[in-house]
């Protein structure tokens, strides 16, 4: 006890007490919230692992064309085969992979939309009756979502580019439909048709239809942001995020709107109308004419 | 039929009219007018009845349509266009579609009736052409019909331009370009029609006046003339039993034909109403209001303008500039030449044919298409030409739906629009001659009966039977080509018609018309037997 009392008088004692108190607070704090510390440590480890997973997926699915370092490849004549992915950003990866365009099956005028490969297929159905089957599907879906996230993060880590838009920015309910319609007709309809039914472009390229439910609002936003394939880029100065959301609102609300006039005939305008007029209209009337002229009045039959 | 009197119901009415107008003899004679029966004779009636429907529904639409280019801000029940600036014409069309009771149905019936009106005129015209029903004395009605089709094209163009939507505005822009491409007076003509720079404020009210007053009036006048001439000249008939050039065989107007044509009106109305109720047409709310700065892919006109659109799409970009003036062949040629060839050629055809064949007689019985191979082949060449241009008008839709390159379709149509008609001519002519040969075979040989006979020396042959009488009449309706009068008579004096380069041309064309004709005729009894018993059939091979 004497010794403690003696130490108490030493010049460094005050410092030691402050230090001890700080340490104690620190220990107590750590004791009360142990998770955070550990999670942070774990999360950085996890992030590295995710990035590794992203890189593995990249090497497996993308590197054969885009190169092991995503530097792009050229053929013998120096013509680019696949572009460099450094700096394209997460939005571009998300668009290309979630629409199934990448990994591409075969190079052509344009890479078509298709079912995403199983590793990235986030649109698989999970509403199975059988709980086991459902669980399996859900797990598969979660894995696909994680894969896509990891791949995005990996490509984003190679060079910064546009990020995937948050859900609030693409919500079709939040956009101004009337403005969206105007912007769509001015900027988009010349390729995608009045209501996004799609249209042909030069050299075998085409503007894909946007009228199917499989084209998600996020994909529309990403397409405007990154300008995939033949599409021009509509960056945030050309079309502000609010305007992009308006266009999404127009497209989604118009495709969900029923046709008040009956069958929409594909909503492609006079071509299908003319076809229907000739085939159904004239067709039915010719049948009617044949039926009417085949009828012979009984009284006059003998003449 | 003249021995029967009209039924009481008619007699009473006629008596009423007669006592006041003194026209019973006219009616008495005409209610019993005989009409031949064939389904293809009803095609023209579709046009007549859709025209009636067009007048009725059009009147309904005028009650709410406001042909004004005044800019308004939309505030109606179609929420997706709320707050958008548009012309009153567009806003009132939206109002008809969404706020007027039955308005959308009327609009759709009106538009479908217009589609059927034009389609049935074309179908009717093809029937008339391929059966040779346009021949003397019916050339005038043929020309009236073509003029009605052309007026119908204008009427349709003006009509679908009225709502001032983005799709039809694009069509008006092309109309402006076509007007402007006319050398010398183009710019003046366009300023005159639009009342200033495109689009201006005047075009919609002006088109409205033309659409609801002038052109329907002209069409109505031509319809009346068409019907009266037809009534006066009597309908042509198919070559059937009892039908001759001198006598029409068929049913009297009252009561049979009247019932049939009345029922057919209801059919036409029914089909148009069905389409109007169940098939959406011209959804202008999806197209949006016209804005000169906007355009959409898949901007096609209604079908009857399709060949013009197609010609414009495949035309190479030819343009010359001389003395400070530009002549835009890239617009002028597609606008004037293809349909000029089709309609000009069609109008001149009855006279060309009469001149080439030297046939100045009256014809009331139709020809079977196979029995006039050059006419049928020319018709098919025109159909191919028109059809390819028509398809070319939809080339971006074709490219998109069938996944082919847009440029490939352009080049495909550029080549086939020239080669296709030639090929169609050759193929059709061969098919016609083949069918003629088959007819000659049936008349000369008889029909295969399926009965195998064995002769005493053990040879097998199939028995051929004479065709049924009705069939025979149809087959023998063919008028075999008569040998052309020699260009020079026995004394070496040239025939008056064969003199000079024109005369030479005529006799050459005449030879081309007839040289490969296959005669279809009954042979003497002896020959018939010989053929039946299975010996050579040289008669047929000739």
UniProtKB/TrEMBL annotation, chain A:
Pfam families in the record: Cytochrom_C, Cytochrome_CBB3
Keywords annotated in UniProt: Cell membrane, Electron transport, Heme, Iron, Membrane, Metal-binding, Repeat, Respiratory chain, Translocase, Transmembrane, Transmembrane helix, Transport
InterPro entries: bc1_cytC-su, Cyt_c-like_dom, Cyt_c-like_dom_sf, Cytochrome_c_Oxidase_Subunit
Catalytic activity: a quinol + 2 Fe(III)-[cytochrome c](out) = a quinone + 2 Fe(II)-[cytochrome c](out) + 2 H(+)(out)
Binding site for heme c 2: 188, 191-192
A molecular function GO annotation: quinol-cytochrome-c reductase activity
Membrane topology per record: Multi-pass membrane protein
Membrane-spanning intervals of the chain: 12-32, 275-294
A GO term from the CC aspect: plasma membrane
Name the record gives this protein: Cytochrome bc1 complex cytochrome c subunit
Automatic annotation (TrEMBL), chain B:
Region feature Disordered, mapped onto this chain: 480-504, 516-542
Keywords: Cell membrane, Electron transport, Heme, Iron, Membrane, Metal-binding, Respiratory chain, Translocase, Transmembrane, Transmembrane helix, Transport
Membrane-crossing residue ranges in chain numbering: 46-65, 109-130, 142-162, 208-231, 263-281, 331-352, 372-391, 411-428
Annotated Basic and acidic residues bias: 480-491, 520-531
Sequence ranges assigned to domain Cytochrome b/b6 N-terminal region profile in this UniProt record: 13-239
Single Gene Ontology BP annotation: respiratory electron transport chain
UniProt EC number: 7.1.1.8
Superkingdom assignment: Bacteria
Reaction catalysis annotation: a quinol + 2 Fe(III)-[cytochrome c](out) = a quinone + 2 Fe(II)-[cytochrome c](out) + 2 H(+)(out)
UniProt biased composition (Low complexity): 492-503
Principal subcellular localisation of the protein: membrane
Cofactor(s) required, per the database record: heme
A GO term from the CC aspect: plasma membrane
UniProt protein name: Cytochrome bc1 complex cytochrome b subunit
Organism: Actinomadura soli
């Amino acid at each position: 006890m004497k010794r403690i009392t003696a130490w108490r008088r030493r010049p460094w004692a005050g410092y030691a007490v402050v230090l001890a108190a700080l340490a104690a607070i620190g220990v107590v704090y750590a004791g009360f919230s142990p998770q955070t510390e550990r999670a942070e440590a774990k999360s950085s480890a996890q992030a590295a692992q995710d990035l590794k997973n992203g890189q593995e997926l990249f090497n497996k699915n993308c590197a054969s064309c885009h190169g092991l370092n995503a530097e792009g490849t050229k053929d013998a004549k120096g013509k680019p085969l696949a572009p460099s992915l450094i700096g394209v950003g997460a939005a571009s990866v998300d668009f290309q992979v979630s629409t199934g365009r990448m990994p591409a099956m075969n190079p052509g005028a344009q890479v078509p939309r298709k079912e995403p490969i199983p590793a990235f297929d986030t649109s698989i159905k999970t509403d199975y009756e059988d709980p086991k089957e459902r669980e399996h599907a859900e797990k598969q879906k979660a894995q696909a979502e994680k894969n896509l996230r990891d791949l995005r993060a990996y490509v984003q880590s190679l060079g910064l580019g546009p990020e995937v838009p948050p859900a609030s920015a693409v919500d079709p309910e939040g956009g101004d439909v009337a403005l969206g319609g105007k912007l769509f007709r001015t900027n988009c309809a010349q390729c995608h048709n009045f209501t996004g039914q799609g249209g042909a472009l030069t050299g075998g390229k085409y503007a894909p239809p946007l009228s199917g439910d499989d084209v998600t609002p996020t994909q529309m936003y990403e397409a405007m942001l990154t300008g995939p394939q033949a599409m021009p880029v509509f960056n945030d100065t050309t079309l502000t995020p609010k305007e992009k959301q308006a266009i999404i609102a127009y497209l989604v609300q118009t495709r969900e709107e029923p046709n008040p006039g009956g069958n929409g005939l594909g909503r492609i305008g006079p071509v299908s109308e003319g076809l229907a007029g000739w085939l159904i209209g004239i067709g039915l009337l010719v049948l009617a004419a044949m039926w009417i002229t085949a009828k012979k009045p009984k009284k006059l039959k003998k003449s | 039929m003249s021995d029967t009197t009209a039924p009481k119901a008619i007699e009473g009415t006629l008596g009423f009219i007669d006592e006041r107008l003194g026209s019973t003899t006219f009616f008495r004679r005409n209610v019993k007018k005989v009409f031949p029966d064939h389904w293809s004779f009803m095609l023209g009636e579709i046009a007549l009845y859709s025209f009636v429907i067009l007048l009725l529904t059009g009147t309904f639409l005028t009650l709410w349509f406001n042909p004004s280019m005044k800019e308004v801000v939309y505030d109606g029940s179609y929420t997706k266009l709320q707050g958008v600036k548009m012309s009153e014409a567009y806003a009132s069309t939206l109002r008809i579609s969404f706020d007027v009771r039955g308005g959308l149905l009327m609009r759709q019936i009106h538009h479908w009736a217009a589609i059927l009106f034009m389609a049935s005129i074309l179908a009717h015209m093809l029937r008339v052409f391929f059966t040779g029903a346009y021949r003397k004395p019916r050339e005038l009605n043929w020309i009236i019909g073509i003029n009605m089709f052309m007026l119908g094209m204008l009427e349709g163009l003006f009509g679908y331009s009225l709502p001032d939507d983005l799709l039809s505005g694009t069509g008006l822009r092309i109309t402006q370009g076509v007007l402007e491409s006319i050398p010398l007076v183009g710019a003046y003509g366009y300023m005159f029609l639009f009342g200033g720079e495109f689009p201006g404020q005047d075009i919609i009210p002006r088109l409205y006046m033309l659409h609801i007053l002038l052109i329907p009036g002209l069409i109505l006048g031509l319809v009346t003339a068409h019907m009266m001439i037809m009534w006066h000249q009597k309908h042509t008939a198919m070559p059937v039993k009892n039908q001759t050039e001198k006598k029409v065989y068929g049913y009297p107007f009252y009561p049979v034909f009247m019932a049939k044509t009345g029922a057919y009106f209801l059919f036409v109305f029914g089909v148009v109403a069905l389409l109007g109720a169940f098939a959406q047409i011209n959804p202008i709310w999806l197209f949006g209001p016209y804005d000169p700065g906007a355009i959409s892919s898949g901007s096609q006109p209604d079908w009857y303008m399709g060949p013009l659109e197609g010609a414009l799409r495949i035309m190479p970009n030819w343009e010359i500039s001389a003395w400070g003036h530009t002549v835009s062949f890239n617009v002028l040629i597609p606008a004037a030449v293809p349909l000029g060839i089709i309609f000009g050629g069609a109008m001149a055809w009855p006279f060309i044919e009469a001149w080439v064949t030297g046939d100045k007689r009256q014809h009331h019985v139709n020809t079977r298409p196979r029995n006039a191979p050059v006419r049928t082949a020319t018709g098919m060449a025109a159909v191919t030409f028109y059809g390819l241009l028509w398809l070319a008008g939809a080339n971006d839709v074709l490219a998109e739906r069938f996944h082919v390159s847009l440029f490939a379709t352009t080049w495909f149509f550029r080549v086939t629009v020239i080669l296709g008609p030639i090929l169609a001519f050759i193929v059709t002519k061969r098919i016609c001659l083949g069918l003629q040969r088959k007819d000659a075979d049936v008349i000369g040989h008889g029909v295969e009966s399926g009965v195998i006979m064995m002769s005493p020396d053990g040879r097998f042959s199939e028995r051929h039977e004479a065709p049924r009488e009705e069939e025979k009449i149809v087959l023998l309706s063919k008028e075999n080509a008569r040998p052309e009068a020699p260009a020079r008579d026995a004394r070496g004096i040239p025939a008056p018609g064969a003199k000079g380069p024109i005369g030479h041309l005529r006799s050459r064309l005449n030879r081309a018309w007839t040289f490969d004709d296959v005669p279809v005729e009954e042979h003497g009894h002896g020959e018939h037997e010989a053929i039946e018993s299975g010996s050579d059939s040289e008669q047929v091979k000739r």
